[in-house]
Design brief:
The chain is an all-alpha fold. It is built from 14 helices and two strands, in the order αααααααααααααββα.
């Protein structure tokens, strides 16, 4: 793996070129261009916030911020994994003609999506500042915001590791992309994007099992742990969370689950890169 990394470093200029190409062609013939990267999540969150705030969570002010804080990193994770599925197949004519480290293709796809995530968070912070100016209250930026780079790195490692797995396997078995699409759809509902982790903790099933469901929920799903961490580090604690037992106080962020998510993400990245390197020499053999 060390030799593969050295080889990858030699082609770093090609990687930069690939990232620039992905950023340019994504919205090449679009009048709004990059703005679509911001409009899509904003419109989605606005609709979700309208439905949730009017029909589900009527007592949580500024619900859109809590939804957006978790939805933006999940959207990056989703797009990175889905886009990576076709990176090898889409570049097969190029792969058969010239040599370059094949891992550049999924890496470039994930990095381009990561750049969109960083810019989206810049807009998110501008939104928080605007709301604070219009409706003065607690200062929107928390001390926990300092942990944002750490959370971004963990999410990047997890996304890139899965991108290696999926791009390599989908080259030989195109059913993989359909399975991944279904898996991501289910993961959206199995992660605290439209709801809060406190609701899992106070669910009757979790209470009956002595908190086992809540622990497994975060240990087995690193995306859930990271979504909770993004929300709790970037925003002030919500005043209360509706549960079957009534409004309950928010729980503090448990960094143990973040640490587990970090270890899992690094393990996925290493194993994904290793698997990709074992299979990449067989790409050209694909009929």
């Amino acid at each position: 793996m060390r030799d593969e990394l050295r080889e990858l470093w030699k082609f770093r200029e090609l990687l930069v070129t690939m990232v620039q190409r992905d950023l340019k062609i994504r919205y090449k013939n679009s009048a709004l261009g990059f703005i679509w990267s911001l409009l899509n999540p904003l419109i989605t969150v606005m609709v979700m916030s309208f439905v949730l705030s009017n029909f589900v969570y009527r007592d949580i002010p500024n619900l859109s911020a809590y939804v957006l804080a978790a939805y933006l990193p999940f959207m990056f994770f989703q797009l990175s994994v889905l886009d990576s599925a076709q990176t090898i197949l889409g570049s097969m004519p190029l792969i058969k003609k010239i040599y370059f480290p094949r891992e550049i293709l999924p890496i470039a796809s994930v990095i381009s999506n990561f750049i969109h995530l960083v810019l989206a968070f810049a807009v998110f912070f501008a939104y928080l500042l605007l709301v604070w100016i219009i409706f003065p209250g607690d200062f929107p930026f928390q001390v926990g915001t300092l942990f944002l780079p750490l959370l971004l790195v963990i999410m990047f490692c997890l996304s890139l590791g899965l991108a290696f797995f999926i791009s390599a396997l989908n080259t030989f078995y195109e059913d993989v992309k359909y399975l991944v699409s279904v898996g991501l759809y289910l993961m959206f509902f199995l992660s605290p994007i439209m709801y809060f982790s406190e609701q899992v903790a106070n669910a009757p099933l979790n209470q009956q099992t002595g908190g086992l469901i809540y622990r497994l929920y975060h240990i087995l799903n690193p995306v859930a742990s990271l979504a909770t961490a993004f929300r709790k580090t970037l925003l002030a604690p919500q005043q209360g969370v509706p549960t079957p037992q009534g409004m309950v106080a928010p729980l503090p962020l448990d960094w143990r689950y973040v640490a587990i998510a970090g270890v899992v993400s690094v393990a996925v990245l290493i194993s994904g890169y290793s698997t990709f390197n074992r299979l990449k020499w067989k790409f050209v053999e694909r009929p």
